[in-house]
Inverse folding.
């Protein structure tokens, strides 16, 4: 199953993830890029994590280490594709959305799916 993303916030998360991959000279973006994108101030998950006694800085660093492990391309490419796990993450986020009774996938659904 392929989930169609119509939510503008989630589109922005994916845009940031692609930008992170591009900045790191990665040919594709994956879960670690999405995780860092979700920690962007615009999505409000940092405060949510702090309220759960989780350290957003640690999570960001964890994702950064994973991003550094991804092979680099010789040159920065504007054509950054998603890796094979992104559709699995979206399917899981959609299942979480349904369980929560939400109309759209939210950043929290994506975080839980990752």
């Amino acid at each position: 199953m392929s989930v169609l993303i119509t939510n503008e916030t989630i589109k922005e998360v994916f845009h940031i993830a692609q930008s992170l991959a591009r900045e790191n000279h990665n040919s594709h973006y994956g879960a670690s890029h999405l995780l860092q994108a979700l920690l962007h101030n615009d999505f409000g998950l940092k405060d949510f994590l702090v309220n759960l006694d989780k350290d957003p800085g640690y999570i960001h660093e964890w994702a950064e280490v994973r991003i550094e492990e991804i092979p680099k391309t010789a040159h920065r490419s504007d054509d950054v594709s998603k890796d094979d796990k992104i559709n699995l993450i979206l399917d899981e986020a959609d299942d979480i959305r349904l369980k929560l009774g939400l109309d759209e996938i939210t950043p929290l659904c994506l975080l839980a799916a990752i």
Q: What stands out?
A: Helices lie at 8-23, 31-38, 45-51, 56-69, 86-100, 107-113. The beta strands are 28-29, 81-82.
